[in-house]
Amino acid sequence: MVSEQTQVVSRNQVRIDRRALRHNFNTITEEVGPGVAVMAMVKGDAYGHGMTETAAVLAGCGCRIYGVAELVEAVTLRRAGIGGDIFVLLGFVAEEAEQFLLYDLTPVVFLHQDIEALSQAAVQHGREIGVHLKIDCGMGRLGLLPAEVPAFKQRIDNLPGIFLAGIMAHLPEADQRQAASTPQVFSCFQETIDRLGAGFTGVRHIANSGATMYFPGMHCNMVRAGISLYGCYPDGGASDDLGAGARLQPVMSFVTRVAQVRDLPAGSGISYGHTYVTTRPTTIAVLPLGYEDGYLRDLSNRGEVLIHGRRAPVRGRICMNLCMVDVTEIPGVAVGDEVVLLGRQDDAEITADEIAGWMGTISYEVLCLFGNNNSRIHIDGKR
Ligand SMILES: *Cc1c(COP(=O)(O)O)cnc(C)c1O
């Protein structure tokens, strides 16, 4: 009998390890020390790890500050019961200014219309709102130019209901220890703030994961940790020191199950376009996932997966919902066997950085792709 309660789930499953997430947050918190706050960057659905679940886990280990891109994400967090400070980094439309007061959110500002709308909304509510000013000291992205900062601060000071609670900038190359831009951008940041004189006593923050790890002199009052929370190193794993041997732990893994095992003769073309043709009798395991699940077509004839703790190479093009791997060297592979696309199996491991290398991208994109295109389950340590 079929029960409506029977849970039917995808064979493709992203697993989020809460224990690793806690370990990484605690490691970063210890690394920066007691005088420095840690903002947990949970934009991008927490880099594919699930925004509200991630924020709730971090709240459980004392996190009090979160960073998101858009207002809608911040409101979602509040409605899910997340307390503390929630920063909206990418601005908002003026009509929505009131939401910052209703949900007690922290706006990052860089437009005159932002501060005017916030001031009006604050006055209407009989409240004061603290804002953080975004300046561009060489990132070449969002923010005010340093020369525009004094007048903008003056404007904030003159408006009722609003005050300057912090100033932030972003670093373009903090993932590279040697990059000359990092000290330059940092000096510009400090000088811009110094020029405001004693009139600014708020919070300063510029460090992403890269600067948090590689430039401890740039922690200021707060660091904004993203990729490191999720267990990857911003330089792609080229170096792996975060303080005294503390190792970050990958939080996400991605698994599927073998859908079919097929023995093919030499000379068989595999998948669309026959971009791979077998050169010997070959055993192929067919996997029920493809680019629709974030396992992108770039991984055709390039990716590897783990089966029985051993590596099996992808053969032929990756389809929307299928891909083929060569298990000729791995005896006894059967339908239903677990396949690890990202993460550990026995003593073997495939990291997000390794997959990023095959795809010509960075771990951030791999995590977003896998996490945001598959059903996620949360686990505590090993299953
Ligand atoms: C995403 C983001 C971060 C976090 O960067 P990581 O390299 O993931 O640590 C920090 N600051 C800003 C402004 C960001 O957009």
Automatic annotation (TrEMBL):
SMART domains: Ala_racemase_C. Substrate binds at R141, M320. It comes from the Bacteria. One of its GO terms (molecular function) is pyridoxal phosphate binding. InterPro entries: Ala_racemase, Ala_racemase/Decarboxylase_C, Ala_racemase_C, Ala_racemase_N, PLP-binding_barrel. Residues 251-379 form the Alanine racemase C-terminal domain. The keyword Isomerase applies. The keyword Secreted does not apply. Pathway: Amino-acid biosynthesis; D-alanine biosynthesis; D-alanine from L-alanine: step 1/1. It catalyses: L-alanine = D-alanine. Its EC number is 5.1.1.1. The modification N6-(pyridoxal phosphate)lysine is found at K43. One of its GO terms (biological process) is D-alanine biosynthetic process. The active site is at K43, Y272. Coiled coil: none annotated. Its cofactor is pyridoxal 5'-phosphate. It is an enzyme of class 5 (isomerase). Keywords: Isomerase, Pyridoxal phosphate. GO terms for cellular component: cytosol. HAMAP family: Ala_racemase. Catalyzes the interconversion of L-alanine and D-alanine. May also act on other amino acids. Belongs to the alanine racemase family. This is Alanine racemase. It comes from Desulfoprunum benzoelyticum.
